[in-house]
Design a protein that fits this description.
single chain, 527 residues, alpha/beta, 7-stranded mixed sheet, 6-stranded mixed sheet, 8 helices, 32 strands, 15% helix, 27% strand, elongated, disordered N terminus
């Protein structure tokens, strides 16, 4: 039988000749395979002999051993490849095997470099368009040059970033792995999760990955809708029922699913310090974390706090319940919580149930711009606000409101005097509100410009205005169509609506002063 095998020169291990039946592959064929299995050679392709040695265990350029295994000689480089051992000198190649050309290394490097540069630009553009990040987010999301992967994960609904964030550990039963992802809200931008188990966890919110993550309170429940923050469309299936004793602190609050959270006081224990904003130690949403979701590892563990924060003193609710009833519940949303009335409707302070609108937060018995008195005695119950943001705006809009001067039947006007003190270069609008009819007497300092006087009263025909010492007679308008109230709406007043309507008519309210009964006002204008 004819032997068609070709003899390889020698094996560097034992010096014995090696035979093979196939002709040796070309440099291009071997280099392709070798580069795939040895990526570090991408920019520095090996020689043909180096490839052969790596594939067949043969060193073509080692000493050639003759058939008697006693003659050693070293081959010299060939003329056409002076910088490496010659192919024919070091390896027996069949005469009928076509010679091949060597790959141009420069072309390879140029093509690969251009390709990688284009790919890098595409990756950068995709990464930067995945979301808007502020500087501190970039700092923390640049997890050891993994910002593209982390940014992509944070914006994904099916990915968690494993990251030991700082958090307020004052009411928490979970101390396992920590994960973060983005919410859909601008306030409470990130949700942080600490596992008790994959199915039970504690939820936190933060506006930045570098800030402390805070507890989440619920105004109208126990936090069941907070499962939305981790992407669940359903409410909690189980929740810590010990929220009644959660300590008072600052955290995030909301009242329903789909509502943007806000920061405020939550918890407070029981009794007078209770805010009604519940938060528990754990929650179960029926969602396993991380479950089958993709996980990207963030930076190393940060120092986590184990000390409860310094609690701010919680103000006491202003009014006790009458049994279980709170006056004004229809207008203010007041409800009885542990014997105290608290208000949940927008525009009313939760603890005082007094109106808040456009920088005017009404308080009881705080020094007002307009001091009321009746029969020479200063009134003991006054509701007022001063809008600091509008002190430089024009015109100055001052609201003086009461229920009555005197109650007569049939209704007849009683004189109420308004003494204006101070001066200002800005024009002044006076809004004078009362339910019963009043004969208003306005004493204006010389040089002060009264732009308009607006009378709000139920008894329009019986009410009148007299302006004294004014250089010009200001326009006066009387109306019963504008809402009215003297500060507290628990008796049927509509102060909040009045503030909104006055702003729409005249601009930002500079000050509000209100009381039940008055026959004299002392108003300070200017700054």
């Amino acid at each position: 039988m004819e032997n068609n095998s070709t003899t390889r020169p020698h094996d560097s291990e034992n010096g014995s000749p090696i035979s093979y039946s196939d002709p040796p592959p070309t440099y291009e064929e071997l280099c392709t395979v070798y580069a795939v299995t040895n990526p570090h050679t991408l920019f520095h392709p090996p020689s043909y002999n180096e490839v052969v040695y790596g594939k067949y265990g043969i060193n073509p350029c080692s000493a050639v051993v003759n058939s008697d295994n006693n003659t050693n000689s070293r081959q010299t480089p060939s003329a056409d490849r002076p910088n490496r051992p010659g192919v024919r000198d070091c390896l027996q190649v069949p005469e009928n095997r076509p010679r091949t050309t060597t790959i141009n290394r420069t072309k390879i490097c140029i093509l690969v470099t251009v390709g990688l540069s284009v790919l890098g630009i595409i990756i950068l553009i995709v990464t930067l368009t995945m979301g808007n990040y502020n500087l501190d987010d970039y700092v923390i999301e640049d997890f050891y040059h993994k910002q593209g992967k982390v940014a992509s994960c944070l914006n994904s609904t099916d990915c968690w970033v494993k990251y030991n964030f700082l958090f307020e550990d004052n009411w928490n039963d979970c101390h396992g792995d920590q994960y973060v992802k983005k919410t859909t809200y601008k306030v409470g931008k990130y949700v942080g999760v600490i596992l008790c188990s994959p199915n039970r966890y504690k939820l936190f919110l933060s506006d930045s990955l570098t800030d402390r993550f805070l507890n989440i309170g619920d105004r109208k429940g126990s936090g069941e809708d907070h499962c939305e923050f981790i992407g669940s469309r359903k409410n909690a299936i189980s929740i810590d029922n010990n929220f009644w004793h959660s300590p008072g602190t600052i955290g995030y609050i909301r009242s329903r699913r789909g509502k943007t959270p806000s920061k405020g006081r939550i918890g407070g224990g029981t009794g007078a310090t209770w805010t009604g904003n519940y938060y528990g130690k754990w929650i179960e949403c029926g969602v396993s974390i991380p479950g089958n979701s993709r996980v990207v590892t963030g930076p190393g563990a940060q120092e986590r706090t184990t000390e409860p924060p310094i609690e701010e003193p919680m103000p006491k609710p202003a009014n006790r319940c009458i049994g279980s009833y709170c006056p004004g519940s229809y207008e203010t949303g007041a409800k009885c919580v542990h014997g105290y009335c608290v208000c949940s409707l927008p525009g009313y302070n939760y603890l005082t149930c007094l109106p808040e609108h456009d920088g005017c937060s009404i308080e009881r018995n705080k020094e007002p711009r307009a001091v009321p008195s009746f029969r020479g005695e200063r009134r003991s119950s006054v509701y007022s606000c001063i809008n600091e943001d509008s002190l430089t705006l024009s015109p100055e809009v001052h609201v003086l409101s009461c229920y009555e001067n005197i109650n007569r039947r049939p209704p007849r006007a009683a004189v109420t005097v308004v003494d204006i003190q101070g001066n200002t270069s800005r024009p002044v609008v006076l809004v004078l509100s009362t339910y019963e009819p009043v004969a208003w007497r306005i004493n204006v300092p010389v040089g002060l410009t009264i732009q308009k006087i607006q009378i709000i009263t139920y008894y329009v025909a019986q009410s009148s205005v007299t302006v004294v010492n004014s250089g010009s007679k200001p326009p006066v308008e009387k109306s019963s169509d504008i809402s009215s109230g003297y500060g507290s709406d628990d008796g049927g007043g509509q102060t909040l609506k009045m503030l909104k309507e006055v702003k729409s008519l005249f601009g930002h309210v500079t000050s509000f002063s209100g009381t039940y009964k008055v026959d004299h006002w002392s108003l300070k204008v200017g700054s």
